[in-house]
Amino acid sequence: MNAAPSTVLVVGATGSIGRLVVAEALHQGHAVRALVRDLARARGLPQQAQRVVGDLTRAETLAAAVEGIAAIVFTHGSDGGGKAAAEQVDYGGVRNVLRALGGREVRIALMTAIGVMNREGAYNRSTQIHDWKRRGERLVRASGPETGPDLVRGARAARRGLRHLGAGPAHELAPEDPKCRSTTDRTRTSSSTRARCGR
């Protein structure tokens, strides 16, 4: 580990996956900044995590959140708010955080969703969440450093994705992708290398 801990911004830090990512990042020795809409919801986060208030749907509220960070882990979601929320949060939140960065390159891990490639399913037809999450993935791919982002599709893979924010090539963990081997096979890979799936 580096002498000075790198600062990791966790977007969606008060959600079920975000809380796990905050704990894992702290366990690894990172300084953690938790982006929250409401400080009251952040009471359950570890004391070591810095809390910063911002609204993903308003880029102008995110400058303090991205100041001085080395990495971002997106674990946010629109929580069933329908088509408008999917666009504003699942896609717009990614767009707004990237805008707030102002072109600075940081490592990025984006957790989207299992089934995000299922465009024709009833869930996506009624909510468009998968469509907007795929658009968010494209934004992250286009904005990342040369090593690219980590795209994590599925909650079980989220903490594994965090382990690779420091350096090395980008990876996609996509359990539903037929080109990938089973989750068990990927679990056996070392922490320094993972098979790239889905490309």
Characterize the structure shown.
The chain has 199 residues and is of the alpha/beta class. The protein has a single domain, classed as NAD(P)-binding Rossmann-like Domain (Rossmann fold, 3-Layer(aba) Sandwich), CATH 3.40.50.720. 34% of the residues lie in helices and 15% in strands. The chain is built from seven helices and seven strands. A seven-stranded parallel sheet has the order 3-2-1-4-5-6-7. α1 links the parallel β1 and β2. The longest helix has 20 residues. It is globular. The C terminus is likely disordered.
What are the key terms here?
199 residues, alpha/beta, Rossmann fold, seven-stranded parallel beta sheet, 7 helices, 7 strands, disordered C terminus
Please give the structural blueprint.
Blueprint: E1 7-11, H1 16-27, E2 31-36, E3 50-53, H2 63-66, E4 71-74, H3 82-101, E5 107-111, H4 122-127, H5 129-143, E6 150-152, H6 158-162, E7 172-173, H7 183-187
Parallel strand pairs: 1-2, 1-4, 2-3, 4-5, 5-6, 6-7
Helix pairs in contact: 3-5
* Order of neighbouring strands in the sheet with most strands: 3-2-1-4-5-6-7
Strand content: 5-15%
Show unreliable segments: 166-199
What count of domains describes the coordinates? 1
In which range does the helix fraction lie? 25-40%
Output the CATH topology.
Rossmann fold
Most strands sheet: 7 strands, parallel
Total strands: the figure is 7
Overall shape: globular
Characterize this entry briefly.
The chain is an alpha/beta fold and 199 residues long. The protein contains seven helices and seven strands, in the order βαββαβαβααβαβα. The longest helix has 20 residues.
